[in-house]
Amino acid sequence: MAEPLALYVHWPFCVSKCPYCDFNSHVRESVDQAVWRDVLLADLRHEAALLPGRGVGSIFFGGGTPSLMPPATVAAVIAEADALWGLAEGCEITLEANPNSVEVANFADLAAAGVNRVSIGVQSFDSEVLEFLGRAHSEDEARRAIATAQEHFARVSFDLIYARPGQPLTAWESELGEALAFGTDHLSLYQLTIEPGTRFATLAAKGDLAIPDGDAAADLFDATQAMTRAAGLPRYEVSNHARIGQESRHNLAYWRYADYAGVGPGAHGRRTGQATERHRKPENFIAAVERNGHGLKVESDLSAHERATEAMLMGLRLTEGIDLARIGVRSGLARAAFLDGGAVARLAGQGLMKQDGDRLAVTDDGILLLDSILSEIVRTG
Questions:
Q1: Looking at the structure, do residues 108 and 215 belong to the same domain, yes or no?
Q2: pLDDT tens, 165-213?
Q3: What is the count of structural domains for the chain?
Q4: Average pLDDT over residues 272-293
Q5: How many angstroms separate the CA atoms of 309 and 126, rounded?
Q6: Does residue 369 share a domain with residue 220?
Q7: Residue 237: which domain range?
Q8: Inter-residue contact 39 to 286 (CB < 8 Å)
């Protein structure tokens, strides 16, 4: 039986654009909810026709700000996915949410619609930091949102951003301690990065914004690992921490290079050796669906080397690492065609990688050097 699919649904709208964000998000004065429900369902039906006989193991509503979606639209998408494919028993259905009180008021209705896991974009519990990050919620709203989510959803995660300009280690330890005290089973903890095309990138180019240097960032990362491990939420991916068994099953599908369908503006997908991408701009996406019955902009076959390379780039982010035999089967390539064994042996000797049979992983000592490790060991053809 084929592996279950992961389904990603993109909601492109936000109340405002954060200065660090390079996601496909858009601010609009008004949104025609009936039109959006119709085009998302049409796009979904197109993917289902191309992927028959597959159950759905997870659904992820991302954005943008999916908590701005009407719960009725969320319910309609879930019901349509079930009708088209069938949802696996215990299907994980995640929705990203902001802590604004108006969105938190929808939590009960979203739970009734079928959402069973929520991921909250808290980012900080400090009002000055929230202002710096361009967030529209207060620190009290952040705390209330987590507490309210815990009342309505069986599984709750939230995000924090650290390694911010001028952030002392002691301040981060205090903030992370408060986060861990909520007792959620999952945390996403991201170091601030300057992404091209963002307002922060403009400030950094002018010299008006500087994030911690490598050594300071490494100290913050090490403290993060120690505190989360002690709290029972070890790192399972570069920035994600969870109690054993509470990892995001949807994101694991990405990192393990399983098939996933992406619908909605700008959504990416990987299905049976093909890469797909939808039109990014909301108006262009609607026009494409109305014209073609789907929002596809790109649909291209991936070569064997591309598939193997992507599987390695994604999988080595995980603490568990990659299954080299699986990559070989799925790509049809001999191991030597996509992996530099000599480089692996050298890095393993330095304590930066470890290999046990077909299982290859980056060690805790190596994870901050992941990009350079990948450039050494991955053969791209």
A1: yes
A2: 888 999 999 999 999 999 999 999 998 877 777 777 677 677 766 776 7
A3: 2
A4: 95
A5: 40
A6: no
A7: 5-255
A8: yes
Coil, strand, or helix at residue 192? coil
Task: Give every CB contact of residue 108 below 8 A, 6+ residues apart in sequence.
Answer: 152
Q: What does the DSSP assignment read for 178-239?
A: HHHHT--SEEEEEE----TTSHHHHHHHTTS-----HHHHHHHHHHHHHHHHHTT--EEETT
* pLDDT tens-digit readout, 63-79: 888 888 999 999 999 99
Task: Let me know whether 132 and 194 are in one domain.
Answer: yes
Residue 6: how many CB atoms within 10 A of its CB? Answer: 25
Q: Which residue, among 133, 70, 67, 61, has the nearest Cα to 93 in the 3D structure?
A: 61
**Beta-bridge mates of residue 365:** none
| Residue 348 counted as domain residue | yes
The answer to whether 241 and 233 are in contact (CB under 8 A) is yes
Q: SS3 for 297?
A: strand
Map tokens 């080595």 to a residue.
Answer: 316
149-161 per-position pLDDT tens digit: 999 999 999 999 9
Picking from 121-125, 162-166, 181-185, 251-255, which range would have the lowest pLDDT averaged per residue? Answer: 162-166
In a domain, 309, yes or no: yes
User: 200 and 61: one domain?
Assistant: yes
